[in-house]
Write a structure and sequence with these properties.
Helix content: 40-55%
Number of domains: 1
Strand content: 15-25%
Mean pLDDT: 90
Low-confidence stretches: 3-10
Strand order of the largest sheet: 3-2-1-4-5-7-6
Distance between the termini: 65 Å
Number of strands: 7
Length: 285
């Protein structure tokens, strides 16, 4: 390997490690907010490549168990697939208290986890992955029969500064195109405002007991979503053979995104973190 190629490889590796450090520390902050106890049994929905899973396993300790699930297959994801990333995590000391279940749907969970129940369910930035609002509603309802407590985190769609607007625009543009797809594995499919999500929890048997703002200032997700939108959304709209007027609207919104992005520094949207109790569990208490 040439010296320049070696330097590039080392630089890219260092950047990846820094990204991982930042993402992992964010999830540790969530765990501290949620007060996950040692020895807990946890059902995680939308584990992805395992960043949240690792933080949960660290908190529960060797006496706990994290059942980490994702609707995607082991082959999904980049730069590492879900399977590759979680195999690395399984090889660590934390791996003994983690089980991964891919292609898992909580609405058809009996064949995978039987009648098991858990002390805590966790959904960390995974609610937007659901194919529809109704699928999310049904999943939250079923989750109430599986867990006593829900720990939840998601992006807040209300920007607090102009620097956060590009992140919001990228999310809204992607979600508009996604609404016309019959099948998808995209990250942004059903973005909901905070108030609507909290209302939905109440309608599906969860009583929210605490809500806090989560610090996202150092996360890289805004850049990722903006790049994904600029690279793919216009072409996806054309491939879907959508009405010309809609395609023109998407193109105009993308140009607005480019303009705002070029005029301001980029900051991620804020996020919120909440804890909810199963209403039936509260009634028994």
């Amino acid at each position: 390997m040439e010296v320049s190629a070696k330097v590039k490889s080392v630089t890219e590796s260092a950047k990846y490690m820094e990204v991982q450090r930042i993402q992992s520390e964010y999830r540790r902050r969530l765990v501290r907010d949620w007060r996950i106890e040692s020895g807990s049994t946890i059902l995680e929905l939308g584990c992805g490549q395992g960043d949240m899973t690792a933080a949960l396993a660290e908190a529960t300790g060797p006496e706990g168990l994290v059942t980490a699930t994702d609707i995607a297959s082991r082959e999904y994801g980049a730069p590492l697939t879900l399977g590759e990333a979680t195999d690395i995590l399984k090889a660590t000391p934390f791996g003994r208290q983690i089980e991964f279940l891919f292609e898992f749907d909580i609405l058809n969970a009996e064949s995978r986890i039987g009648e098991r129940t858990f002390e805590t369910a966790v959904m960390a930035h995974s609610s937007w992955y659901f194919g529809s609002f109704e699928q999310l509603r049904s999943s939250l309802s079923v989750l109430g029969s599986r867990a006593q407590r829900l720990c939840f985190a998601e992006w807040d769609l209300e920007p607090k500064s102009i620097e956060q607007v590009p992140h919001l625009l990228a999310i809204l543009i992607q979600s508009q195109v996604e609404s016309f797809k019959r099948q998808s594995s995209a990250n942004v499919r059903t973005p909901l405002p905070r108030a609507k999500l909290i209302k939905l929890l109440g309608e599906t048997g969860w009583q929210v007991t605490s809500v806090t703002d989560a610090d996202t200032h150092d996360l890289q997700d805004a850049r990722w979503e903006i790049d994904a939108c600029l690279q793919s959304s216009a072409e996806e709209a054309r491939v879907l053979d959508l009405p010309p007027k809609f395609i023109e609207q998407i193109a105009s919104q993308i140009e607005l995104l480019r303009t705002v992005e070029a005029s301001h520094s980029i900051r991620p949207l804020g996020a919120y973190s909440l804890v909810a109790e199963n209403s039936l569990n509260l009634a028994k208490g």
